[in-house]
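Onboarding guide, step 5: your first structure request.
Type a short instruction followed by the sequence, for example:

Predict the 3D structure of this protein.
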Amino acid sequence: MRNPVEIDHIDPRWSEGRDYQLVCGLDIDTNFCERDNRLNIQKSNRFLPWRVAYDEVGSIPVNPGDLCQFLDCETGEWVLEEFMGNWWFKQTKNLCGNSRGGQIQRELGLGMFNPERSNLQIENSRKNGIANRDNKLGIFNPLNRQKTLDGAAKENAKRMRPIVVIDPNGVKYEHASLNGGARFHQISAGLLCLVLQGKRAHTRNFTAFYLNV
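The system replies with structure tokens like these:
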């Protein structure tokens, strides 16, 4: 299980082999920020050049919604925008390992986008389900019936909470429930649930977080 709090580099570290990384984050205290693990997953390793001047509006971008002057990659101008807002996510969609990796896998039909692997996973899941049913294991064990019902009710309640899903291109989508988001993006509801719980960084390069209402 992931730690509930993680250390984030405001300016991310350089990773060898990443030709799309813009900066080399400094290992100094002012560059470290404690974040809730779900928020850290949402931010990923995205970075957009920013500046702060004493005579200008803006602050160091630490928390979502902080106003700061960011570099507009399309115009080359400095603009005042919200940190981790819709504009920020659109600007950084091609500056993130998850996004670039997802684009490459999707274009080349690799990993989770490989049709043969997807079919194999479906077949293995079906076989495992049949074996558990025949051997009365897991949810098919009569002794686990009430636990299964209680767990299903609790999970269903969680899945009715509104969520935000961020696709591999950095576009955010709001959904009324976990299941609705999973169906819309054609991804596993179970794996998406693990992302929301902070136990998994992403599923098929989609990240997500619960929407506070």
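Each response can be followed by summary notes, for example: The CA atoms of residues 7 and 139 lie 38 Å apart.
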